[in-house]
Amino acid sequence: MCNCLSEVIKVYRKNTRDENADILSCFLFDKGEVPIIIATHRYQKKDGTFANKIVKETIIPTYCPFCGKKI
After folding, report:
1. Bridge-partner residues for 26, per DSSP?
2. pLDDT per residue of the chain (71 residues) written in tens, 0 to 9
3. CA–CA separation, 60 vs 10, rounded Å?
4. Are 39 and 21 in contact (CB under 8 A)?
5. pTM of the model
6. In this structure, what are the phi and psi dihedrals at residue 10, rounded to the nearest 5 degrees?
7. Burial of 69 by CB count in 10 Å (0-12 exposed, 13-18 middle, 19+ buried)?
8. By CB neighbour count within 10 A (0-12 exposed, 13-18 middle, 19+ buried), where does 65 fall?
9. What is the C-alpha to C-alpha distance for residues 34 and 53, in angstroms, rounded to an integer?
């Protein structure tokens, strides 16, 4: 079994600088359509700490997060 999802989470945590950021779900619709990823993270304050509020966002990647092929 591959570790693609853990790699996507690792990159997401690096980009948000929030070690508690997480991927809630990933939807792949009909063949040939773009995957949709639902994720959460916290914003980093100016003093370097993280806010308590958890933000939910939708990510539409330009590549398949599981095989790396361009969409």
Report:
1. 37
2. 356 667 778 888 898 888 888 887 776 655 556 667 888 889 889 998 999 998 888 887 777 666 776 76
3. 17
4. yes
5. 0.53
6. -60, -45
7. exposed
8. buried
9. 29
